[in-house]
């Protein structure tokens, strides 16, 4: 793994779903590279991109690894993450090849977030995939991807193997899920758990607990557990300003809130809270994050969603100002410290970095500076939950 951003208790990332309604795609993508450069200069540990297919407005990036390759050439330290690649729609061999090339190009900075594609259900038909089998397709593809990256020979061939090899990349898999079974499967596979959808207290925290219990039940060291969460962070002069800027996002996600029992007439402020969007003056945002059950104190990687669909929420300059407030005021108040010292020179093409020996399945590595995520249970509590897992 690349060196951590600093001695703080969690790593800090930013996320964009890549909007830019009405703007040329090339301009939108060039702005993304600028976000990565700015994020690195501000000390962010990672930048993460979402994948969306066939979308001209909401989520305009179908090929995140290509964009991350461009960002890799403009940066030297920052993690390059996907949140997420819709795995059931991918050919595992092609994804493995692209991911391995990007990881080599970036010096081992890829963080590969993978999802089953619930929000992408309308796209499954275009890829000739059965959306009803998306969990099964995910499990099959993830297993194949793991085998390919580990260097196993490809079935049906005379010993062909993936090139370039990327044996350590599987220790940077992150599974995104909204189900208990998915959280348990992530832990058993040795993957990280990436939480992004669902109310923090009633949906995300229980999944985190299940993941940690299953991780412990599998006999893995507590320090190997990797929990990440993506929440919106929109500091501003007041909460009303954020509601105005994020009105299109609220309208888009309001029907989704009904899946979690929220009433259709929920006011905009409460809707943003339910959507895990921490908004308002800096002090209000800090308090909101500090008291959240899956906030920065409870996870090993906190990823701040920093862009909305349109207007000021999507504007590049406004986004950069939000990122600056997050990196200079909000995250430090929660214990994070930015990367210090000069950004290292990139590896030369003639002498790329050598991957370390792959981790053992019994004890996957954790980035230096991370321990057991705080706030999710004492060792005794973890052992009790693990005992329940072993008895399932």
UniProtKB/TrEMBL annotation:
All copies of domain Luciferase-like, residue ranges: 15-254
Taxonomy, superkingdom: Bacteria
Alphabetical list of SUPFAM superfamilies matching this protein: Bacterial luciferase-like
GO molecular function terms attached to this record: oxidoreductase activity, acting on paired donors, with incorporation or reduction of molecular oxygen
Gene Ontology CC: cytosol
Region (Disordered): 336-392
Compositional bias segments (type: Basic and acidic residues): 382-392
A Pfam entry, by short name: Bac_luciferase
Biased composition (Pro residues): 341-350
Compositionally biased spans, kind Low complexity: 351-360, 368-381
Annotated protein name in UniProt: Flavin-dependent oxidoreductase, methylene-tetrahydromethanopterin reductase
Protein species of origin: Frankia torreyi
